Prior knowledge:
With 220 residues, this protein is an alpha/beta fold. The radius of gyration is 17 Å and the shape is globular. The model has no long low-confidence stretch (mean pLDDT 95).
Amino acid sequence: MPKTDHPYIYLNERCRHYGADLVAVSKTRTIEEMDVLYRMGQRVFAENKAQELIKKAPAMPSDIKWHLIGHLQTNKVRAILPYVTCIQSLDRKSLWEKLQEEASKSGKSISCLLQIKIAAEESKFGWIYSALTELLASGIHHSFPNVVLEGVMGMASFTDDMEQVRAEMKQLKFYFDQLQQTYFDRNPEFNTISMGMSGDYQIALEEGSTMIRVGSLLFS
């Protein structure tokens, strides 16, 4: 990376090359730090915690698209809906039901990604793929019209073994392809594969990611 370039410029170029979107993960960052990226053209920011997103959104320009990428408790859904553009961490049926309930009450739709567990760590959240497909086979997604499913999200294992990381990302791409063909073939909105972070975004892009979530590299 050229030393004179801000990491944002380089990452934007990488994303354009692969036809992917860049999401700036701004957890723990100040409004001033975020404003630097905003002035460079970044318009999509993500937070891990609902409380932090709710606090920051009113303090930043209104044209920002906010994504929630962390585990979302059902009791935070109502509070976050006025601010969030996409919830990437739809990982269980109870959350799906609550999102539908609150979105319907407010007369709006909410975009979501299905978070699928691909990592070896037990601590990682996400659907077990077989449980997800069993649910989709029942047609449940047609019962939640206010929850717009736009693709999948996954987090690879936190490891130095990049071959393991690549294998897990290949798995997520395979899951996406299967879901798209089996349950969403007539839905052009189901087109997003969100995978790849600061330490593995290049592998993610090579393996078909359409959206990378980068934090530390952008704010270093």
